[in-house]
Amino acid sequence: MREILGSSDMKECDQYTIGKIGIPSLVLMERAALSVVEEIEKDYNNIDISAIIFAGIGNNGGDGIAIGRILWEKGMKVKVVVIGNMEKCSKETKSQLEIAEKLGLQIEKNSDYKKGEYNVVVDALFGIGISRTVEGVFGQAIEAINSLKQKARVYAVDIPSGIHTDTGEKMGVAVLADKTITFQYEKSGLYLQDGRKHAGEVIVKDIGISKQFLKEKMREPYIFMYERRDLEKIPKRNDSGNKGTFGRVLIIAGSKNMAGAAFFSADAAYRTGCGLVEVFTPEENRIIIQEKIPEAVLTTYDKKDFLKKMVRKSMEKADVIIMGPGLGTSKQAEELVEYVIKESEKPCVVDADALNILAEHLDWLEQKKAECILTPHLKELSRLCKKEVNLLKKDCMTVTLAFSEKYDCVVVAKDARTITVEKKKQKCCINVSGCNGMATAGSGDVLTGIIGGLLAQKMRSYEAASMGVYVHGLAGEMAEKDLGNYSMKASDIINNIHKIIN
């Protein structure tokens, strides 16, 4: 797993390293500058460099001035432009200015950015911690950087200027970087909202900031992302096991003309490794389910059946319950959702129509007996949280953590960058796997099945949910390689699960 930090934790790490460990801030600044120069040289590999450095007046600007000085001392063409009131420079940035001037490197203030031809642009205007809209000379500088991008590669120092470190929100205007060199830890804003597009390729450089502070502090929430090696956390198959060993998943899904959702969830659960799937669905879906997935146990009902008695028998046999894909919002569906939420003693994954029903009856969640994983996309999350989608996009992590705390559940907030949170464990996983070809009908039903399959194999709820999202994305990436983004279907994701879990 890769740890991800927000602005406050990163600042405290800096302060701890400087104040408690005793590594001078100028030493860290030099290391940061050298790491950026290293990336530039790697990309240009003996090609003549003509660079323009946009430096702010804070420590990020000091990094930029040091980058310009190092490039200049290596014989490259360099122009350093300081944006802002130089009298208000931080102590470290003033030191960098003095060093550069003593060596003869010319520093310009708010110069004409259009003069000269550059193939390297360095954005060192703002570091972490930006909290207000960028405007004035700083906004103009960012627009200049983006205009220079047509003929040059843009390198952002730590985070693209104008991107909120924690949420990834674009604060009015923001640098569009080709590469972001960030220090010691990745920042959440590099992967959320506008940040993921503006950061370009993200490179993490170790510059000697102490990790001891994070070991001593209980961070809330602990933010992380999975890597390929984390797939080892998926339970190993028992050579002497049987279908019962690998768990039984009950899928309460489908309605008239909506059999596909039940099939996708069932097939994905099987492909993820569970031992047996039972599909609980209306009678109209019998033939389709039997033909599409004959491996599944099938229980069907019609409008006259007493559903509570029927579903109770199925619930008693199950290890995990999935509820919602294609279920509809009829009176029968509402009765099913209420009964399962209130009476189930097995972990339950709630998706799609079940979420829309639940949004009108949130008090049911307060009466649940078992762990619940909710898997809403942003519109469904908006209904659950009673918040506008625009607000969720700005700070989805905070909103979902608050909801998770209030209703004691795991929340998988599905978006281009899906986040999985659980307030009780103070955990937030930002998922970076996947591709835009996965934005297709049935993809969410597949994810629900994958999570259910992992739960059936005794993974804990939070781990099953967050790992399920990661596996889902990786399977989507494999499908993309074969078919491209335009031609992918939900079934293609299922057909690639075996390449991820084996």
Supply the key terms.
19 helices; Rossmann fold; alpha/beta; 502 residues; 42% helix; UDP-N-acetylmuramoyl-L-alanine:D-glutamate ligase
Write a structural description.
- The chain is an alpha/beta fold.
- It folds into two domains: 2-219, Rossmann fold; 241-500, 3-Layer(aba) Sandwich (UDP-N-acetylmuramoyl-L-alanine:D-glutamate ligase).
- The chain is 42% helix and 17% strand.
- It is built from 19 helices and 19 strands.
- The protein has helices at 7-21, 25-44, 59-73, 91-103, 136-148, 195-199, 212-216, 259-272, 286-292, 307-317, 331-343, 352-359, 378-385, 389-394, 396-407, 443-456, 461-483, 490-494, 497-500; strands spanning 2-5, 50-55, 77-82, 107-109, 120-124, 153-157, 179-183, 186-187, 201-205, 222-225, 248-252, 276-282, 297-301, 320-323, 348-350, 372-374, 410-413, 419-422, 427-430.
- A twelve-stranded mixed β-sheet has the order 8-1-10-19-18-17-16-15-14-11-12-13, sandwiched between helices. It has a seven-stranded parallel β-sheet with strand order 4-3-2-5-6-7-9, sandwiched between helices.
- Helix 4 (91-103) links the parallel strand 3 (77-82) and strand 4 (107-109).
- Helix 3 runs parallel beside helix 4, helix 12 packs parallel to helix 13 and helix 16 crosses helix 17.
- The longest helix has 23 residues, at 461-483.
- The chain starts with a strand and ends with a helix.
